[in-house]
Amino acid sequence: MSTPQTLQEETRQAGISAPLSEHIALLGDMLGEALREQAGPDVFDLVIELRRLCRDAEPDRIASAFAEVAHRIRPLDLETITWLLRGYTALFHLINKAEQQEIIRINRERALHSNPDAPRPESIAEAIHTLKQQGASLDDVLALLRRLDIQPTLTAHPTEARRRSILFKQQRIAALLHTLRYGKPTPEEAERILAETRNQIRLLLATDEVRPERLHVEDEVEHGLYFVRHTIWHTIPRIYRDVQQALAQYYEAHVDFPVFLRYRSWIGSDRDGNPNVTPAVTRHTLLVQRRTALELYLTALRDLRRELSVSDQQVPVPDELRASIEADAAAISLDPIRLRQYQHEPFRLKLSYLIARLERLRARLDAPAASSPAEAYTSTDFIADLRLIRRCLDACGLGEVAHSGPLSDLLVQAQTFGFHMMALDVRQHSRVHEEVVATLLRLAGVTNDYGALPEAERQRVLSAELANPRPLVPRGTDLPEPARSVMDTLAVIREAVAHEPLSIGSYIISMTHEVSDVLEVMLLAKEAGIWRMDGDTVHCPIDFVPLFETIEDLGEADAFMERLFTHPIYRRHLAARGQFQEMMLGYSDSNKDGGYWMANWALHQAQDRLGRVCRRHGIDFRLFHGRGGTVGRGGGRANQAILSMPSACQSGRIRFTEQGEVISFRYALSDIARRHVEQIVNAMIRATSRPYDGDEAVPVAEGAPEHALMDRIADRSMAAYRRLIEDPRFWPWYTKATPIEHISRLPIASRPVSRKTGGEVDFESLRAIPWVFAWTQTRYNVPGWFGIGEALQALIDDEPGTLDQLRAMYRSWHFFRAVVNNAQREMARARLPIASRYARLADANGHASPIHDLIAADFERARDALLRITEQEHLLDINPVIQKSITLRNPYTDVLNLLQMELLHRYRQASEQERPSLRRALFLSINGIAAAMQSTG
């Protein structure tokens, strides 16, 4: 953006490492060159000048500096403002990729300096090494690995503001930087790399940031599969190789162990509040995923065929392989040219038959169902064939080729992805199920007003119908909406599991409040032919998962599961599912409902109590964490969150959502993807290895002083939070002080921002993502900290010894430390002098707002309390890397905010004819601030 010297000095003054400083300076210089070419030198000079005014202001002069920048922006025409937005936004896209390259560099440095006695931190080797040091035998480690069940789940939550075109260019630039640093290019090669980088930056600047229209669900499906194809597919085998290498290093063992890592998806199947996810869309998603899997296998098989040039003229070939080839020849024809070509290369011949089988499967995906006979060849058969090839290579004396090459990788991929790629979950709101059940019961003559029945009577009616073999309505009955859509969706599930049993994972029930909410879905599944009861035996291929989202529901979650587990019919359903239960926790809505501290504490207690109730009933269980990307929606480092969980819920099983911009950050680059996944596996090994004896190893037992203190903090912070959001002045202020109106129109997802189908959005109906998104844009970051200031200050001031107690908890309790550190990170990223200017947008005369004053006062109290508890001088002194990154980013982000505020002011004064172009510029400003903050909602 400026000369290399200027940016390099700026980054070094901020304390940025020399390698990262060099990359940022290099990219900034190239961007400045492109900006001068495309926008002209005057725009370039203005970019530099506005940033300088924000950067150089002393803390006590920052308000006047912002006023000066706002004054400079006011007379600019819209084209100039748009170029400024594009320049700053592009810079943040480049800085973000440079920082990812810095993460890769640091991990490589750590790997270079590691050894068996000091493995790389948070690696799989470190976890296995720790087990060895603790005295675990090989059998102990293998038993632990067999317990692991890790299932990251991709979702289409609308938090990725970037177009895929922008993502592609960012990834290409990152790859060029990687080659420049680690590829040891010659001078000529280096110059070509630099030239291509310049061109990619030119293209980045010339590419539309904003999509021309809202995404379709099919676009979201393809977006998710892009990351599966390009990184996740290749990352999975690397993780298993890491485990095998660690077992060989520390136990001198070369053993097989089951796969413990599988990906799931909601994209194309999560219909809660999204009318665009239809049964046809879900059927299409299943088809696209299957085609993607087959194409990936075909590519891998062709590569493997080139590799396995084993000749029966050189080594004896096992009879098992020849017999298998004969069976293949009887089932499927092969080109005679292939037969002659591979007459002495049986492994290549066998692989040719596998390729032919998968090609036939792929061809049948596009054939009408009636003309396409069921294919007998399944993913189980495919895995068996790959294992046969491995055994035969072993028998040929090629064991290393069999167990440490591409065949081994392909076998892991086949066991992980099957032919379905990722199991889909279906999610729908409990209110919809209630309406559909009421319709069916009325048509069947069972009851005319199911919705008016009390809970006990609902359960009686539902239990009787579950035990009754007759359907409520004849198959094919023309049903009204939403009954038709729900039953058609269940028909898609029935077809999918009949074709590929693992293609559908769970049916998730949003806003689960009562046992009847689960029984209703079971009854609908029975009606669709998915669930049935023969005598006392239940048959069902999917799990029904309650989702607890509000503070009240989290507090009652264990009592709810107690009632569910003791329900006679549900107990039989559990037997059909191997005494297994999955339960989902909602991090976003609980925060919006009760504020930051209460949500975290309610979630922590719910995890502990759910683990205990499952253990009491002998239920194998898995918690599913519905985390977002921001701290206000449960974000943060996933491995630290795992280690912070209570021991009662550490079952070895876990699911968590990977949403929006989190998917792009974690899976756009293969080295970052591997680092993310290995950190998860490391944390799960460490957490699962801790014995559970019914007592918590950290001070959270109910009745303990620490537990009581956490309750008081949570209650006080929620009271402060609810006073804010229930203030009659709050909602009008929020809608005027933030860009929520424009966030709701941003074309970044297929899902509406509100569960309401029409009319104005209110607080209750606004989804958690746009709620957090708007706070992030204005730099308040309220969902990540608000309420804790009043709570902590009151307790510290009013109760002697509380500060010492909080400091002890911070030092010794992983969960408490994580909650405090996440809050201080969000506060360090906040920028109250900028936020105060947004607050003035809510007043016709541009005056300060009492709502802002409430927020600012709690911020000061919270900052003071956190600094005293953590014994720091400044927020994030414990994490200087993030602290320095914030220092570097702030001046550029400040200008983006000031540009956005000018656009908001103009939009509100504009005519209807002027508004479309202003709205497009506002969308660009939202994208820019999202890139600067590295988060949306």
Describe the structure.
It is a single chain. The chain is built from 40 helices and ten strands. With 937 residues, the protein is mainly alpha-helical. Among the domains are: 189 residues, no CATH class; 202 residues, no CATH class. The strands form two sheets. It has an eight-stranded parallel β-barrel, surrounded by seven helices. Strands 5-6 form a two-stranded antiparallel ribbon. Helix 8 runs antiparallel to helix 9 and helix 10 packs across helix 17.
Features:
mainly alpha; 10 strands; single chain; eight-stranded parallel barrel; 40 helices; 937 residues; globular
Oligomer designation: single chain
The side-by-side strand order for the widest beta sheet comes to 1-2-3-4-7-8-9-10
**Which percent band covers the strand fraction?**
5-15%
Separation of termini? 28 Å
Question: What's the total number of strands?
Answer: 10
Mean pLDDT: 91
What profile does the largest beta sheet have? Answer: 8 strands, parallel, barrel
What proportion of the residues is helical, as a percent range? Answer: 55-70%
User: Which class of secondary structure composition applies to the elements?
Assistant: mainly alpha
| Tally of separate helices | 40
Query: Tell me, what's the shape?
Result: globular
Radius of gyration: 29 Å
Low-confidence stretches: 695-699
